[in-house]
Amino acid sequence: MSRGIYSEDLAGNLRLVEALAPIHCKSCSGYHLARARKRLAAPEALDRAEIVELIRVRAVQHGTADPFDVLIAGSADTNLLATAAEAVPGAVRALYTVLDHCRTPLAVCEAFARDHGLQLQTHQVDMGTPADVFAADVIVVHSLLRFLPRSLHLGNLRAMRQWLKPGGAIVFSHRLIGEDQDAEPYYRAEYDRAEPILALFAEAGLRVVSLEQYREEDGPRRRLLAVLETS
Fold first, then answer.
1. For residues 120 and 70, what is the distance between their CA atoms, to the nearest angstrom?
2. Residue 10: inside a domain, yes or no?
3. Whole domain around residue 120: which residue ranges?
């Protein structure tokens, strides 16, 4: 179990994914099952503490008068929902929305929300060409572009920009990995440096408010963590 009051039941997640993957994961190349098994063996998620702090700052600034809308754009499991819930102070009423193209992680998040009393909506959405309309104070994006062809990256970022409420922000995390490094079959595109991603932000009408780049502890890969607002 992960630390904190929003503990993830990783063994329970694996059991649920094992039941759902044969039904819903026909086009996922085994990703959700592999992810559930990996996290049970190594539960600590990358940059969780940093993302908690970035969301918390926004939640505190938002205040308690109106609900704080958090949208998670692409979710492999309960990690990002648990991270967001941990970040929001108890005095702030949060509404959570989780999007993914596959029903499996949405069902896992729904079970987590029931267990922890979170107000959650889930939507099965084509993340490459999202046509739905949402409104969020914070959008959390974690390595989503790796699962989409490069030709769809700009359109995806432009759609998320449109989902931001006035004063809203995107918390964007992305692993940088060279094309020559080992990649799993579910990844569709990789960036080995930040510059092309920063250019996408600008073209999508997004302004970089903060940016960190750091090397992951377990190898040569690097990670980019940014906060974005509308230009």
1. 10
2. no
3. 46-230
What are the tens digits of pLDDT across the range 51-106?
999 999 999 999 999 999 999 999 999 999 999 999 999 999 999 999 999 999 99
List phi, psi (to 5°) of 229. Answer: -130, 165
Mean pLDDT of the chain: 92
**Cβ-proximal residues to 8 (8 Å cutoff; 6+ apart), any chain:** 1, 2, 43, 77, 78, 79, 82, 112
Residue 139 within a domain = yes
3-state secondary structure 120-185: EEEEECCCCCCCCCCCEEEEEEECHHHHCCHHHHHHHHHHHHHHEEEEEEEEEEEEECCCCCCCCC
- How would you classify residue 219: left for phi > 0, otherwise alpha for psi between -120 and 50, otherwise beta? left
pLDDT of residue 18: 96
Total tally of structural domains belonging to the chain: 1
How far apart CA 108 and CA 102 sit, in angstroms, is 11
**pTM reported for the whole predicted model:** 0.94
CA distance 209 to 111: 34
Tell me the pairing of strands 164-176 and 206-215: unpaired
Burial 190-200 (b: 16+ CB within 10 A, else e): bbeeeeebeeb
Any idea what the CATH number is for the domain that residue 145 is in? 3.40.50.150
What does the pLDDT average to over 127-133? 92
As given in the structure block, the two tokens for residue 130 are: 């999202």
Q: Can you read off the two tokens belonging to residue 77?
A: 């499991």
Q: Residue 1: inside a domain, yes or no?
A: no
Domain assignment present for residue 203? The answer is yes
